[in-house]
Design brief:
Blueprint lengths: L1 E4 L4 H12 L5 E4 L7 H6 L8 E3 L6 E2 L1 H11 L11 H27 L3 H26 L12 H7 L2 H11 L10 H12 L1 H6 L3 H13 L3
Helix pairs in contact: 1-3, 4-5, 4-6
């Protein structure tokens, strides 16, 4: 198994997290997003982005959510991630899609915009979004430690791999995405995620986050 990625990408971190959590051996190939390789262009020709997973003679698998589900299906007995109930699985998928299409888009724009008024507006939008996420956590965790219950599940990885960026926001932009007063349960959840050995090993350093942000700023708009 091989993973094509770019260090600093939260979506690549998700794939690394699951591979590590399920003890799957793989080869990591670093992609230069400023000078995209033939491997990326041929394996993900439409979106041309990472991560891309290669497994034996199967077609390449692009997009982090699809990779997480694929790895969960081929290793169902090692730390299962999605709930067994079909309705709960569907709910997790909808929430993950919503997080990526709404929350991530706003957080990325927050980092990249030079417009101070726009950034303040996005800050308020993100704060409101995470207050909603606090309610989602309360509902799904059912009083337990993680979105997935007693242990890390699908949504814990989807959201938790952003924790490094949240810390980066606090240091660079003086903005706490998850704040104890606003999001007490998410704040405690974040501490539990940070203490997990896999999170410690795959979430990039602040230096890597800064390098990745500078790379994003240099890409064509």
């Amino acid at each position: 198994m091989k993973l094509l990625g770019a260090t600093g990408s939260v979506f690549v971190t998700r794939a690394k997290f699951v591979l590590k959590l399920k003890s799957i051996d793989y080869e990591y190939i670093e992609e230069d997003l400023c000078n995209k390789s033939e491997l990326l262009l041929t394996s993900n020709p439409v979106l041309q982005r990472v991560p891309v997973l290669f497994h034996a003679n199967e077609p390449p698998i692009a997009e982090s959510l699809a990779i997480i589900e694929y790895l969960d299906e081929i290793q169902p007995d090692v730390h299962p991630l999605l709930p067994s109930d079909p309705s709960e699985r569907a709910q997790c998928r909808v929430l993950a899609y919503t997080f990526d299409t709404m929350f991530y888009t706003q957080m990325k724009e927050f980092m990249l915009t030079d417009d101070k008024e726009r950034r303040e507006y996005l800050k308020e939008v993100v704060i409101k979004g995470f207050m909603m996420l606090e309610q989602v956590f309360m509902k799904l965790s059912k009083g337990k430690a993680f979105f997935g219950g007693d242990d890390i599940g699908y949504l814990d990885i989807v959201v938790g791999c952003f924790l490094g960026w949240f810390k980066f926001y606090e240091i660079v932009f003086n903005f706490k995405v998850i704040e104890e007063a606003r999001n007490p349960r998410l704040a405690q959840w974040g501490k539990r995620m940070w203490s997990h050995e896999v999170a410690k090993s795959v979430i990039p350093s602040q230096e890597i986050h800064m390098n990745f942000l500078n790379m994003l700023r240099g890409l064509p708009k």
